[in-house]
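Continuing the series of single-chain predictions for the mutant panel. This is the parent chain; the variants come on the following pages.
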Amino acid sequence: MGCTALANYKLISFDKIPSTQDYAHELISAGRATDKTAVLAAAQSAGRGRYRRTWVSHHGNLYVSFIFDCPERDSRLSYAIAVAVSETIASFGVRPTVKWPNDILVDNKKIAGILIEYTGRFVVVGIGINVNSNPTVEKYKTTKLDNYSEIPMNVLLNRLMRNIDRWRSADFRAVRTRWTELAACLNKPVRYQGEVAELIGINENGALVLRRGTRYLLVYGDEISM
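Parent structure:
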């Protein structure tokens, strides 16, 4: 384990641990968590995504979980993080899109994922980015940054931290505008309460705006499925 400072973050780094997300939660449970702590691993033996799905975590990619002070849940945070990850990838000359709720795509293939979990007065933001390898997954296609540009890991992490700081503190109107530009899921059918509706955007509070016939509905993330 190593502990350093980078871009005003406290960085705790490992060669391999079960899960950066779980380690961040352990820090919080033990009362040792502080705002802007980043837990980084070169590989994970039990990496996970939403609903505890397995996140394949071989060496060569970026696996990091950030701890932030967050006394209340904020539905706008996921959009700010998605924009921050996308802007980081775009800074290397790659053109990403956002697939709701937590995937970043390049050429319609998954290149990064985001996992946001609240605990106590903190939020843990887990981010995985395929850099030098991409897993073979049965249900969807994947890709890696190395297919498009050679990117040093420390440069990628530094830019990610700076973009997270930038977009977390940005006016949500700017986040909403940029997310809408990046979104690959707008005007697409989703399922809400067992029926199909169309996802047409997000409102100023971070609620998803759905249209079903002539009715407009405001809903939050876990209530719908693509």
